[in-house]
Amino acid sequence: MTARALLTTTLAMFGAASAMANVPTIIDGTITAGEWAGAATYTIGNGGGTAFLRADTNFIYGAFDITGWDPNASGNMIGNLLGFGVWKANGGYGTSPGVEFQQSTTAAAWGGDGPSGTMNGLASAFRINTVLQGSIDPTLQAMDSFATGHRVWEVMMPISTMGVSAGDTIYVVGGINYGAQQHWYPDTVLPSFTDYAPVLVAEVVPEPSFYGALALGLGGLVTVVRRRKRA
Predict the structure, then answer these.
(1) Reported pTM
(2) What is the DSSP letter of 135?
């Protein structure tokens, strides 16, 4: 293979790999291919489906693909509760720093302490250390959808109030309410809130631009090509 052909082939492979590795996470209620690559994955118990979770030092990102939710069944209307909480200690509700977020068309679905506001048409409760906040953090994003025939909920929730650092483990628990039943995820989580899903906090590292990464990759390639010419 000539140096020119080697360069062209390597550029094509590098571009394809970079595109696959940099699929952005968009909070739109749709789980796209590669969007949750590298996330911790858990089974949603009772209701059925999969939860994808990851965190950095500023946010926890969650995607909940709830396959067992039937929007046409009695009691399974769109207004029922979706929610999850994040804590610094396993089973730490009320005993360690934590944040929670819940959404429904009616605050009564979670006991009636009143919403912090409305997001995407759903009454939303945002709590820090169990205390209901008077407003939703402006950096919080959430969207749910039935576009795939079952319920999908994506959330990006700030955890900076917990004082987490890279390398910390945080613990996540969540659930859905419909038909007067509670369905918890992951499948090991019981209504007693004693077993949460562990998620490792990652350090925030700015992603290099495509051309910057390409230049780094080409540095080694040019060296190889030069060596081949000398040979």
Answers:
(1) 0.74
(2) S
Q: What is the residue extent of each domain of the chain? A: 1-22+210-225, 27-206
For the stretch 21-64, pLDDT in tens is: 468 889 999 999 899 999 988 877 666 788 899 999 999 999 98
DSSP string, 82-118: EEEEEESSTT-TTTS-EEEEEEES-GGGGTSS--SEE
DSSP secondary structure code for residue 36 in this structure: T
Q: Specify the fold of 27-206.
A: Immunoglobulin-like (2.60.40)
Q: What is the DSSP string of 42-89?
A: EEPTTT--EEEEEEESSEEEEEEEETT--TTSTT--TTS-EEEEEESS
Question: Could you please report the per-residue DSSP string of 149-184?
Answer: SSEEEEEEEE-GGGT--TT-EEEEEEEEEETTEEEE
Burial 54-82 (b: 16+ CB within 10 A, else e): bbebebbbbbbbbebbeeeeeebeeebbb
Instruction: Provide the token pair at 46.
Output: 């009772």
